[in-house]
């Protein structure tokens, strides 16, 4: 049977996972009466809730005698570590582009990685049946993007199809029959080359591990593409680190291959197959699994370095331990180290005291997903404000710069440009019309300036703007950037909040808590309307007397309070504040800064 390995890459919400659903259905991977959930490849609860792909996943379909291994990749740059490893397993990519939006920042990010590996993409213009779709404009923009990224002549001569993933059709012509995906299947078989490593079947076995997971019965399991030779169950292998150091010797207890959405045990795998091996205890992502006579590790894709760092600590508030079951620093450290082993884009380091841990990653979304997973597992944590990682280049302090692409109604473009280029030290690169009444703004902004900007951006655009960002490069430090303007309301008492007290505090600013909620001294219960912090008493009840006056006993009517999401809370806090995260609630509180942190806060980096 012929073999093709292909990855599907695209920007967030351009329809990758929905298209994979239809490929699985039309290839006969499901029984006619089988119940299949929407976006079947999104197996993680958070992926389903947010509608984004976080973990790269493999599946396999058969089409007219050819087995096609398909890898669904994340579209968000925060999870780019997954994309970088996965692309080394495949021989071709399907680049999905929304026919209305055109290429977006993450389109550029994943395409850059694919072109650097010499892959020849197939362009799928998706959602061409939308009322605002402009497939010809989108196709021209894709070609310009290929040219700007230095694509070769062979890569520039890319085939394309017009498709609707949700409706389950793809055609070579815009006015085609729109019946099924057979045109896309045929194009994949025709355009994507068979794995080059098929010629290395007779060489000793070697495989580069690209994803790591655990199975309750099989233990640690590693997935990757067989680069050379063949492997059968019971064979003894060894694991080599990236530097060629021998890690362990083990016996393969199980070989699993992807068949539809499930993994099926097989007796033997050969070069070119994407398979999962079980039996190892130490080997991890980017290690080489090979025959005993092999001494050289396979080259692994370099991973872009982290750009932000967040401090994870124990929850030491007065309400600690009431909601979660995992509160000790030892347990938190073990969980973070386990995460760093699976996710190569995350780095974990101990702090001098040993009670907190510096976790570095790609962005606020990646950190938010990790924290959300931990709180669902029963952890209680205290989280610091994200800090940007600086770099010294030729003795000059440099900071990361991000390319920001914003689609906004024309009437709000002035406010957005003013905030980005004035307060946040950004540089306007391009501004152009983007459809009826819309403007597209492209700017290069320091990563520091974007921390906490999302909420302000939604306020400035009345919730109608769309902001996308991608790492652009390094630039000399641009000086201080003003942080949050408003101060906070801090509780001076511990107990249960009282509606009457909150009603009196409403004129001081917006509140983060409602009546009958547990509060404690030092907890942040709202945002002050001015730029200074204000200590308040949310427990102060109404003084009762035996005198009754007209209107004095009216019911208290409170304005609905603001309930922040995890990412909003992390972006909102200042250097001397923490987010308290438990399985049931998210709180904000003040903390004491040590002398070094006081200096850093004074410099405002």
UniProtKB/TrEMBL annotation:
Domain of life the protein comes from: Bacteria
SUPFAM superfamilies given in the database record: EF-G C-terminal domain-like (SSF54980), P-loop containing nucleoside triphosphate hydrolases (SSF52540), Translation proteins (SSF50447)
Gene3D superfamilies: 3.30.70.240, bipa protein, Elongation Factor G (Translational Gtpase), domain 3, P-loop containing nucleotide triphosphate hydrolases, Translation factors
Chief location category: cytoplasm
Domain Tr-type G: 1-196
UniProt keyword annotations, A-Z: Cytoplasm, GTP-binding, Hydrolase, Nucleotide-binding, Ribosome biogenesis, RNA-binding, rRNA-binding, tRNA-binding
A Pfam family the protein falls into: BipA_C
Top EC category: hydrolase
Enzyme Commission code(s) on record: 3.6.5.-
Catalytic activity, as annotated: GTP + H2O = GDP + phosphate + H(+)
Subcellular location: Cytoplasm
Residues reported to bind GTP: 13-18, 126-129
Entry-linked PROSITE patterns: G_TR_1, G_TR_2
Family in the record: Belongs to the TRAFAC class translation factor GTPase superfamily. Classic translation factor GTPase family. BipA subfamily.
NCBIfam families in the record: small_GTP, TypA_BipA
Function recorded in the entry: A 50S ribosomal subunit assembly protein with GTPase activity, required for 50S subunit assembly at low temperatures, may also play a role in translation. Binds GTP and analogs. Binds the 70S ribosome between the 30S and 50S subunits, in a similar position as ribosome-bound EF-G; it contacts a number of ribosomal proteins, both rRNAs and the A-site tRNA.
Subunit: Monomer.
Protein name listed in UniProt: Large ribosomal subunit assembly factor BipA
Protein source organism: Rhodobacter calidifons
């Amino acid at each position: 049977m012929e073999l093709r390995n292909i990855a599907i890459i695209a920007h967030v919400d351009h329809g990758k996972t929905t298209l994979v659903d239809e490929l699985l259905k039309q290839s006969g991977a499901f029984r006619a009466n089988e119940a299949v959930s929407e976006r079947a490849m999104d197996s993680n609860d958070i992926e389903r809730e947010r509608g984004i792909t976080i973990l790269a996943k493999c599946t396999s379909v058969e089409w007219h005698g050819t087995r096609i291994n398909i890898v669904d990749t994340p579209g968000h740059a925060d999870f780019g570590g997954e994309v970088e490893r996965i692309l080394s397993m495949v021989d071709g990519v399907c680049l999905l582009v929304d026919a209305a939006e055109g290429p977006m920042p993450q389109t550029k990010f994943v395409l850059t990685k694919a072109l650097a590996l010499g892959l020849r993409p197939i362009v799928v213009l998706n959602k061409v049946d939308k009322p605002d779709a402009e497939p010809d404009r989108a196709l021209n923009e894709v070609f310009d993007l290929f040219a700007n990224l230095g694509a070769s002549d062979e890569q520039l001569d890319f085939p394309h199809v017009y498709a609707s993933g949700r409706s389950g059709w793809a055609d070579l012509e815009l006015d085609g029959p729109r019946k099924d995906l057979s045109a896309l299947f045929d194009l994949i078989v025709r355009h994507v080359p068979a794995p080059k490593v098929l010629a290395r079947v007779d060489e000793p076995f070697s495989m580069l591990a690209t994803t790591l997971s655990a199975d309750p019965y099989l233990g640690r399991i590693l997935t990757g593409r067989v680069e050379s030779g063949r492997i059968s169950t019971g064979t003894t292998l060894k694991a080599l680190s990236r530097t060629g150091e021998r890690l362990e010797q083990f016996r393969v207890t199980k070989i699993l291959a992807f068949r539809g959405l499930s993994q099926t045990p097989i007796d033997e795998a050969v070069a070119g197959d994407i398979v999962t091996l079980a039996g190892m205890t130490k080997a991890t992502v980017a290690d080489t699994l090979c025959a005993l006579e092999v001494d050289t590790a396979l080259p692994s894709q370099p991973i872009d370095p982290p750009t932000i760092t967040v401090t994870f600590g124990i929850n030491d508030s007065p309400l600690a331990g009431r909601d979660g079951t995992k509160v000790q620093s030892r347990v938190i450290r073990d969980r973070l180290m386990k995460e760093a082993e699976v996710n190569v884009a995350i780095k974990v380091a101990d702090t001098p005291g040993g009670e907190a841990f510096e976790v570095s990653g790609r962005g606020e979304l990646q950190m938010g997903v990790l924290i959300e997973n931990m709180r669902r597992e029963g952890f209680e944590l205290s989280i610091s404000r994200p800090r940007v990682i600086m770099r010294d280049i030729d003795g000059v302090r440099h900071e990361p710069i991000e390319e920001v692409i914003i689609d906004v109604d024309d009437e709000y473009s002035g406010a957005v440009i003013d905030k980005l280029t004035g307060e946040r030290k950004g540089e306007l690169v391009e501004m152009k019309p983007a459809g009826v009444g819309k403007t597209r703004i492209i700017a290069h902004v320091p990563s520091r300036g974007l921390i906490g900007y999302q909420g302000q951006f939604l306020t400035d655009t009345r919730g109608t703007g769309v902001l996308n960002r991608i790492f652009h490069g390094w630039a000399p430090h641009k000086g201080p950037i003003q942080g949050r303007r408003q101060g906070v309301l801090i509780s001076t008492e511990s107990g249960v909040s009282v509606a009457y007290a909150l009603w009196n505090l409403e004129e001081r600013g917006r509140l983060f808590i409602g009546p009958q909620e547990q509060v404690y001294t030092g907890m942040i219960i709202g945002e002050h309307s001015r730029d200074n912090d204000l200590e308040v008493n949310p427990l102060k009840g109404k003084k009762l007397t035996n005198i009754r006056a007209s209107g004095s006993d009216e019911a208290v009517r409170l304005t609905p309070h603001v309930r922040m999401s995890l990412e909003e809370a992390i972006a909102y806090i200042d250097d001397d504040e923490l987010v308290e995260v438990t399985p049931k609630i998210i709180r904000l509180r003040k903390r004491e800064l040590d002398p070094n942190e006081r200096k850093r806060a004074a410099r405002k980096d």
